[in-house]
Design a protein that fits this description.
With 160 residues, the chain is an alpha+beta fold. It has one domain: GAF domain (Beta-Lactamase), CATH 3.30.450.40. A six-stranded antiparallel β-sheet has the order 3-2-1-6-5-4, sandwiched between helices. Helix 1 runs antiparallel to helix 2 and helix 1 packs parallel to helix 4. The longest helix has 18 residues.
Length: 160
């Protein structure tokens, strides 16, 4: 059963609580859309100083907007374009301190200043990306990357 937790520890301890909450939230559910919707809602509730969190799903050689929390977003992103397309093309997390310094950045929300994108790979195949934007420069760091990659790993394990 899912229970609301209080976030009072270190960032790492708080992320550990979120991972536990996420496990409980999606336990027994294998529907991709349902799990992505709850994942975006949970991260939106937990993370401070963000203005968009959600997923893009890999379909027919492009990323297509999936469940998210935030303002309306770009619907389709080509392979290798922007931060999300680069994450899929390279198969690795993109940690962008200043989106204006990222060549080819796609500005869906002009308020976004920094971004982290974690690719979602299931059995060697791209499923999509977790994308989180912030209106603050340098919002994301290695702690965020480490725990958001763990978050995506939990998601992937429940999709198999």
């Amino acid at each position: 059963m899912f229970e609301q937790a209080s976030y009072i520890g270190s960032r790492a301890e708080n992320y550990e609580l979120v991972l536990q909450q996420f496990e409980a939230l999606i336990d027994g559910e294998n529907d991709v859309i349902a799990n992505l919707a709850n994942a975006s809602a949970l991260l939106n509730q937990f993370l401070d100083d963000i203005n968009w969190v959600g997923f893009y799903i890999w379909k027919q050689d492009e990323l297509v907007l999936g469940p998210f929390q935030g303002l309306p977003a770009c619907i389709r992103i080509p392979h290798g374009k922007g931060v999300c397309g680069t994450a899929i093309a390279e198969g690795k997390t993109q940690l962008v301190e200043n989106v204006h310094d990222f060549s080819g950045h796609i500005a869906c929300d002009p308020q976004s200043q920094s971004e982290i994108v974690v690719p979602i790979i299931v059995d060697g195949e791209a499923l999509g990306v977790l994308d989180i934007d912030s209106p603050i420069l340098n919002r994301f760091d290695e702690v965020d990357q480490q725990y958001l990659e763990k978050f995506v790993h939990i998601l992937v394990e429940h999709l198999k």
